[in-house]
């Protein structure tokens, strides 16, 4: 058989049978077909909308909204704001819950993932039960659980839990003092910024020093001192100079509800807690897989070098595990962001609830609204992936 | 939520791919061909559209669909009811998922002119009101400054609410939910101080409260809510069937033709009754039905007054007075256009 193949002379190539030419031909054909389908769909949709006398185009974004939204990060009023503003409100609410959710889900996920590998039987089992329970129940049910069963029975505003220091908890949410900044409060912000920059500079210097001389510096203490100490010092100086830079607006009882202060909506809390606990269960598994992917020899080698277990984890295991963890972790971040659209079930005004719910219905422009919404989620996801890919490249193992 | 996404996706795909020519002008033919009517209904509103313990749909809106089914098929049961949340209802109708939308929907100019819909029959004249807990001690909507208010999103209610508080220079916190069920549950659980929807809806939802006697409906009616039956714009024959189904039921009430006496009335000498019941003239054929179309409606469903009393009036738990929905001869707005 081998001889037969080696002896066969290469056949005379016909243009039609050139696999490369054929490949290109089919690729081009596919692109044409897809493009044609899109074109047909779009022109058909426009034609049908016109025929059915359904308004189309994006002009509606300029029209006055006429409705109110419970949580707005920008100024929004039924009278003066447009559907475009409502879109921004929904988008910001989605980004807010996603960003905070990603931070907390990462912290909780890493904690649980590491706990599952703990040598302490109790800790490992508790983490296991958490993971298996949370990731095997549909997220929608969990959200309804948090919203209806956990936050629902909170007392009416008149019987609020008084938590002290101007904090109140009731069925309308968590109320807290709202800081009011005086004109010279920027000094505190500046002190904080200096603290952050100082920390970064000091950490770099300390790392270099350690690499060249082996001497260690109290990085943790310095960080706390710079990031927290500087702003507090600035505040104290201003306060002693009798120019109190920050005062607080405390919530007080009104006719129906507490008035003043800041309010965190129960819808937001339920959504955040639901997303964080659910996604953390998946992240925990990703982290566990990543750590298990680091060979035991690494841990043993670190131990024989005299590193403590905590140091082994922090300096040897996690950095190597990260390259396994990052890609699936990115997927979990995307999932969390997309899952935030389940907000619609519990009345949190995210993009889907505000834009695809109210705006779509008030304008009736389903195709435009759905297209915009899909475009937004696609963009958020691609940007998240892009950022995570950059990070992934930095932590990827350097081949030598 | 899945429902919402499915119906929106459905709407998109349908409007993208279905050829336009088939969608207009042909609803009656397609209904006759498939042998049943698809009727967009409320997800559950006592008196208007709600499945009973046996799973049979009941209510004023439901009976409107039953009347159409009776007129077309001589059988009030050839219907598939599709429960729709407020925010999905118009998309479902536009996309052809339902043939007719009888789901306590307010007709407004923008809905009539921008959504590609028509609203041929107003089967209930309503207005928006508020419900609060008795123990709040509130007796007027003007005292609601600072209150949290639960409402259903994608409704005229949501817009009127904003208008009312703005006009009266009052503050409020809105909490909007996708379905009427979620909205009322949130209010009942104490998330909001007040619940707002059409007055008829307030009475209907109050029955579902954990303790109905704890709640009162405030006297103010803050808007006009003509609740109408909707069809797709452009299919005039189908729109005519909706319009004349309603008028037949109104005229029957005015002329004293009831479900019980309709056979007897068939022998009446009154020319108006003769035209209504099809023994004189060919009015049914002109809209693609049989000439005894109105007889079928009254025989199977009854006249407007009977349907009203049975579903929302004295014969129901809601006990709503006829009010604006009385016959024009009795001071109401329901005015049957003559069949001739």
TrEMBL record, chain B:
UniProt keyword Transport present: yes
Pfam family, one: SBP_bac_3
InterPro entries with a match to the protein in the record: Bact_solute-bind_prot3, Solute-binding_3/MltF_N
Gene Ontology biological-process annotations: amino acid transport
Signal sequence extent: 1-24
Domain of life of the source: Bacteria
Keywords: Signal, Transport
Domain Solute-binding protein family 3/N-terminal, first and last residues per copy: 36-265
PANTHER family, A to Z: AMINO ACID ABC TRANSPORTER PERMEASE, AMINO-ACID ABC TRANSPORTER-BINDING PROTEIN YHDW-RELATED
Family per similarity comment: Belongs to the bacterial solute-binding protein 3 family.
Name of this chain's protein: Amino acid ABC transporter substrate-binding protein
Organism (species): Microvirga alba
Lineage of producing organism: Bacteria, Pseudomonadati, Pseudomonadota, Alphaproteobacteria, Hyphomicrobiales
